[in-house]
Amino acid sequence: MKMHTVISRRSRGILLSNVSSAVSFFVGRSFSQSTSIPKKLQRVRDHGFDNYMEIHKKIIKVLKFQDLILSQPNQYIAISRLDTLARRFGFKQYESGAFVLKFPHIFQIYDHPVQRILYCRLSPDALRQIADENAALDAQIPDAITRLRKLLMLSNSGRLRLEHIRVARKDFGLPEDFEYSVVLQNPHFFRLFDADGPARSKYVELVHRDPELAVCSIELLREKEYREKGKDAEDIRFSFIVNFPPGFKIGKYYKIAVWKWQRLPYWSPYEDVSNYDLRSLEAKKRMEKRAVAMIHEMLSLTVEKKMTLERIAHFRMAMDLPKKLKEFLLQHQGIFYISTRGNHGKLHTVFLREAYWKGELVQPNRLYLARRRLDELIMMSPRKAKLDEDLVHFRRTAEDEECLQNLRRELVEEDQLGGDEDHGGDSVDSELDTGIASDFSDEGTDHEGTDDKAIGVTE
Fold this sequence. Notes:
Pfam families: PORR. The chain is mostly helical. Helices cover 49% and strands 9% of the residues.
């Protein structure tokens, strides 16, 4: 009896040990699988960046109208001709007049003293903003040269297609004639040549690599964190600044996955990895993190720390970036933010989250501030603009003044009553009527759906 009890206890102990080892085996497998960053993550909207892009959509249209007006010989254009030429931008009939009336601080509408028809020109504030931006652009050409050198150093071969750089020239603060003023004027830094082949594409090549420039911006931030906050050097040696958007769900195992990923070593984007063996799993993980550092450094080289996903894709082959860039960036929503506002959701803009605080750059530059002045002019309410600023006096007679006073009175009365009646059926009056009615349509409108709970840019 005692012998049977000893055997049963011994067999029970063996069974329990087997069960515990099996449980630990399966738990260990599930733990290791769940502590890796998922390949597909649901995108969480950040209203601060999306609202920024809502203004940027208006900026794109305003810039098209500005270029159209400045291309005229006397830098003013008749409203009827503007309505015709604006159709190439996708505007329908009479929509261009309504659009320019929305921004009286940028566009001025006046009646021609001889032809007696309405003309449009840029306001003094808009001309001053353009002059300030051009002055800031010329002043930072030495910095633009350095940015272009570092951009070429990020490529595998030290060369990039001239057309790809031209498409993204505004992002990197390059002037319109950068091919001459930056590339050809600095032969000790750059070389321009035609590639062999049927396409005959032009390439910009770096003459020599400067080791002093091969320092990433994230490395400088790590050094700053180490010196100021005294963090552990081992924890921040390969880490990135992560700020998840509001409403992003962070689970227990996801925290562990991010902690493991932050400590994962990787090769610098400026390091040549062409002779490395990249077949192992560890090498593939390092290359994936290197791609994050590559995009991080590319965005750091831009003026506004943002760039469209389509322009980043132009450099994909030259910088060893993954094919599915959008899915890749969504894995790291704490570092980057992708906004789909613009061109009916077909345009994706990638922001560097750590560079922004409450919708503003943490370290603004002169060119960025000059461009933000245009945002301020767009944001100004049309209600504060006097009608006399739109209809500028140019040697009017008493009859003209009486007609304009009647027109002002009719527009104010119709705006107060909210009526839709037509004033005489004239095409010019219909343009004014459409513009006044649409001045207040964009104010106070919520541009976001009900599926998002995040508000503002909080770091």
